[in-house]
Amino acid sequence: MAVDMHYVTLKWVKPEDLNARGTLFGGSLLRWIDEEAGIYSVLQLGTQSVVTKYMSEISFESSAVVGDMIELSLGAFEFGRTSITLRAEANNVFTKAKILTIEKIVFVNVDENGRPKPHGFTDVTLGRDRIPAKSDDEAVT
């Protein structure tokens, strides 16, 4: 599936990110992907109230070692009434090897009780125009 990857970020592989074999721990990579996908979803839906609902099958194709840099790329390809569906790729910047692809990650906009809530968007924004402004009561001083 061709998806425009509009959000790209980089992560260094550090010693605390390794498994017992000395390679990148899959859980560390999935934590990074979940966090960055959440950030991208907030930017797309204009709300901080998003939760991870679903990740499709994950198949690791290669790994990384300390000092490698991982490029995480995300793109939205479907907007539901309360959800957004993304695709994710992780690649090793130095070796050029693909580490994994996740074809489908679904985030849901929720209300204060954790129930799905309509978000009102149907297309990707390339800016940050949907970031909710904090009110004066919420501003940090």
Helix content: 10-25%
Radius of gyration: 16 Å
CATH class term: Alpha Beta
Our measurement of the CA-to-CA distance between the termini, rounded to an integer number of angstroms, reads: 46 Å
CATH architecture annotation: Roll
Uncertain residue segments:
none
H-E order: EHEEEE
The tally of structural domains comes to: 1
Descriptive account of the structure:
The chain has 141 residues and is an alpha+beta fold. It has a single domain, classed as Roll (Thiol Ester Dehydrase, Chain A). It has one helix and five strands. It has one helix at 26-45; strands spanning 7-12, 50-55, 69-79, 83-92, 98-109. A five-stranded antiparallel sheet has the order 1-3-4-5-2, with helices on one face. A hairpin with a 5-residue loop joins β4 and β5 (98-109). The chain is elongated and about 45 Å long. The chain starts with 6 loop residues before the first strand and ends in a 32-residue tail after the last strand.
